[in-house]
Amino acid sequence: MAVRKFHKADIYIPFSVIEEIDRFKRDMGENGRNARQFSRFIDILRAKGTLADGVEIEESGSYVYVSIDQKLENMPETMLENKADNRILATAIALQREFPDAKVQLVSKDINLRIKADVFGVFAKDFEPDTANFEDLYAGIMEVNVEPSQIDSFYKEKSIHLDLKLLANQYVVMKDLSNEKHSAIGRYDVGDDRVVPLISPSDSIWGIHPRNMEQSFALDCLLNDDIKFVSLVGKAGTGKTLLAIAAGLSKTLDEGKFHKLLVSRPIFPMGRDIGYLPGDIGEKLNPWMQPIFDNVEFLMGEGKKAAGRAQELINQGMLNIEPLTYIRGRSIPNQYLIVDEAQN
């Protein structure tokens, strides 16, 4: 939460910000979730003291104040008081005048508000939380240089111990510096403390063959019964959903390891809420579920038979495609569960 990122600071939240947050509290997306979370946080502080006088955040040295919007004289007529941005800026100017020896900063994601603040001599900056770069995230892969004999031993013995600090199920790319074509890939088995070969099906998985090393790693962990949770991160179009559904169909229909395949994804309306859309619940949800149907039908084959086969699996209860909202709070035993777009 943003207010927790400021250390030993007096954090003033103008009344207009509270009203803006109130507008978003019923939003079903990320804005609504953040608004509700923030309101609960402020309510917890309110129980500890008077917000007008300031309440400390968990002995951090930072205090939160909820202040009444200020009105300033000699403001241009174009800066209407009924606009929240202008009232927030006026509050910052008033604080600057009230505390001339303090460094007053206006922190906002609103570019135009920061521009206005600059015109009135108020220091303004964007909110830049301590977030990690995408490149810094755990990739699940380690490249190592090894002796040629080690690669040969790996292929012969079907496993190898490497004197490395590896994480469970981390993938390893072993390279021979003397011969770039001499290499091997494997997965670290923490139980045996050895790198083992990937699961390599003799045939394709529902017509799908990995097209690169990363897809081979993804398919390996999706097909591994000992790995109960898999998180796939990557750019759009890299095959994450397709590989997951192919593995799910294989485990459910081919191997019978699960009773059914459940595929879910969150719903984020681009415009009016789904309640305003025509049709029954299935017709309302179809635009958001269509990418899942497209992948299933692609794996089934081409033409009308593929669509019919997918619907047949749904009718038989072997395949279930639902929005994420509808599976919240449910118990889902013995099912291969895929959550598409889980970051949302």
Helix/strand layout:
Layout: E1 10-14, H1 15-24, H2 30-48, E2 55-56, E3 63-67, H3 84-98, E4 105-107, H4 111-119, E5 123-125, E6 141-146, H5 148-157, E7 171-176, E8 183-189, E9 194-196, H6 213-223, H7 240-254, E10 260-265, H8 281-300, H9 304-315, E11 319-323, E12 335-339
Helix pairs in contact: 1-2, 1-3, 6-7, 7-8, 8-9
What would your notes on this structure say?
The chain is an alpha/beta fold and about 350 residues long. The protein has three domains: about 1-125, 5'-nuclease (Rossmann fold, 3-Layer(aba) Sandwich); about 135-195, Archaeosine Trna-guanine Transglycosylase, Chain: A, domain 4, CATH 2.30.130; about 205-344, P-loop containing nucleotide triphosphate hydrolases (Rossmann fold), CATH 3.40.50.300. The protein is about 35% helix and about 15% strand. The chain has helices at about 15-25, 30-50, 85-100, 110-120, 150-155, 215-225, 240-255, 280-300, 305-315; strands spanning about 10-15, 55, 65, 105, 125, 140-145, 170-175, 185-190, 195, 260-265, 320-325, 335-340.
- Beta content comes to 15-25%
Q: What's the overall average pLDDT, rounded? A: 86
The tally of structural domains comes to: 3
- Percent of residues in helices comes to 25-40%
Order of SSEs, N→C?
EHHEEHEHEEHEEEHHEHHEE
Q: Helix/strand/pairing class, anyone?
A: alpha/beta
Instruction: Examine the coordinates and then state which fold CATH places here, giving the name of the CATH topology of the largest domain.
Output: Rossmann fold
- Which of globular, elongated, flat, extended, rod-shaped describes the shape? extended
Which CATH-level-2 architecture of the largest domain? Answer: 3-Layer(aba) Sandwich
Q: Which blocks of ≥5 consecutive residues have pLDDT under 50?
A: none
* CATH evolutionary superfamily of the largest domain: P-loop containing nucleotide triphosphate hydrolases
Task: Determine the N-to-C terminus distance.
Answer: 17 Å
Radius of gyration: 28 Å
